[in-house]
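Moderator note: this is an archived Q&A kept for reference. The question asked for a predicted structure of one protein chain; the sequence and the answer are reproduced below.
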Amino acid sequence: MDDVVTLPAPVAAEVSESAPRRPRPPTKVVHLTRSERVAKGKLARAEAPLAGHADFSPALDRNPVALLESQAAARVPELVPIRYGRMLDSPFAFYRGAALIMASDLSELPRSNLRTQLCGDAHMSNFGVFASPERHLVFDLNDFDETLPGPFEWDVKRLAASLEIAGRDNAFKTKTRRKIVLSMVAAYRQAVREFAGQTNLDVWYAHLNMDQVMAQYGPQLEPNRRKRTEQLLAKARTRTSLQAFSKLTKIVDGRARIISDPPLIVPAEELLPDLDSSALYEQLHRLIRAYRRTLQPDRRVLLEQFQLLQLARKVVGVGSIGTRAWILLMEGVDGNDPMFLQAKEAQQSVLEVFAGASEYANCGQRVVAGQRLVQAVSDIFLGWQRTKGIDGVDRDYYIRQLRDWKLSAVVDEMNPTGMEVYGRLCGWTLARAHARSGDRVALAAYLGGKDTFDQAIADFATAYANQNERDHAALKTAVDSGSVTATMGV
């Protein structure tokens, strides 16, 4: 515990010693037979009939703007208007920041009670490409701020609605959008049924290698779209720490320093001009040593070969804006061996009020545990910490590399064929995640071999996209009236 230190409030957001917790008593694992698992899945249809997933009726006391405002209380005040400004860009941008709103809506609907580890925010932009530790490009879920066990269909509905909303933003026709959503759900359902017949190890090792993906799906794309995709994948391989170093830093008096670009990137020295810099970084070194203990032993050795040069606050994403996120500039052998780590605040999942509290006392550990369970491969520096600021508030963080061949889809450039292929990849990936963490045999029995579930989810996606447009308009009205402040274009 001698590594626990107190930092000034803005920097207390970083990394620190996790709070101790009592070990949980061992839980007896019940191993059902395959026939019992099939019966479990079919029985769940009585609780939540497949066709019933089409239903969506908003609660009478529903107030989406109030839900968004409730999240602002725990966020950095000067950054919250940026979040609202980005959400106003389009209905799809609004949807990306509205995970709490949808969680509240989903909680009002019948549940299958077939629980898996949920992504918790499985919209289409939270899937993407990144490097595996073996240096292959893989496609997977890549955002786990809201991860928590819950009803599997919540992830499916979040993904389906995002495709419908993105299709509207791209001016796709109604039939085209429905075809895209149906294709995604069918890919999910069929993949679950395939995983149900596989061994545990085969499911665990399953992943999407982008070389194999392009070999399978590339011929379905128009030649110019295929070329553009290949260019983006080649670009992903250049998105390394060295590339981030050249973009985010400059040399000042012979030392690499993070370039200030307020309010998006602000070095700690600018946030705390009156703080003694040497004292600050001595404290940060202690915090990094504490974070290191959450890594595997071999990765601790690797981390020890880097030294911290500088810390800066960085605005990231849409829904995450206002939570505290920091980038740590690290140096290895010399100036040609840099690495950026990102320490991102982890708050209570938006699902916890509706699906039950996390088993982890540290929200950063919740994110890391969920990510390791759901992803086929995870960042080698993925870890967590907790710290208490001078304001007396404990804050949890998870840490990972800032950039390691990471690439997200450019949604507004997709044509219908591209979005349909992308949706199928997302559907398969989500099925793999749920098959790893839930009862895939029961899930397969519940979903069945017909398209009843597919059609119901497509109906739901249409209804929820309509609601999302009304919610987007409600935020705009709140901004226009002055009750909510938004900063546009940042």
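Archived answer notes: The longest helix spans residues 452-481.
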